[in-house]
Amino acid sequence: MSFEEAAHLYQALSENVTFDTAMAVDGRNIVVSAEEWKALKDEQRKQIYFNLMENAAKGNGFSYGRRYITESEANTVLNNFFSALNSERVLSAMSEMTGMGDLNYASMQATRFVPGQFLTRHKDVVEQEGRKLAYVFNLSPEWHPDWGGLLQFFNEDGATTESWTPNFNTLSLFTVENIHSVTYLTPFAKKPRYALTGWFGKR
């Protein structure tokens, strides 16, 4: 993708998208809108944060901004990107490049990580969705690796194998069986970490 096209996507995410917050709290995966979060009392927010940290300490936690994108997306730039991912040309190219057979759909969500957010180790296998290949299209200009937000991969025993910096206008691809995480975004991160993410699959 050209730098200009990626810049338009970044602008759409940073200026036009309202993100909900996805979190793991009390053993449940929840999604809270900005309005719902503001409506909570301070003590409720503290309790949610405490539970979030307790879960994360046990290797089961996440907190990040997200918004699912579908073909009915009103933002033209995001809608065009979603349509391109689901075009026969892209799906055929991904099928051929990965040797995964006839991939026939791509899902997409806009994601935003701000300081204090993270995604602990996990796999992306969801049998009922037919996920095969995960992708992350990075849209954070001038990202500094010391800010966190690295896409990190692990062996089954927890040993780190690779870490990928979310450099602007780069595409990361990996199979859904890969154990991975997004590292904690530090308090001194100057910008949010934006990306368009999802899965190519077979239904």
UniProtKB/TrEMBL annotation:
GO terms for molecular function: iron ion binding; L-ascorbic acid binding; peptidyl-proline dioxygenase activity. Keywords: Dioxygenase, Oxidoreductase. The keyword Oxidoreductase applies. Residues 22-201 form the Prolyl 4-hydroxylase alpha subunit domain. Signal peptide: none annotated. Its cofactor is L-ascorbate. GO terms for cellular component: cytoplasm. InterPro entries: Pro_4_hyd_alph, TPA1/OFD1_N, uS12_prolyl_hydroxylase. GO terms for biological process: regulation of translational termination. It comes from the Bacteria. This is Proline hydroxylase.
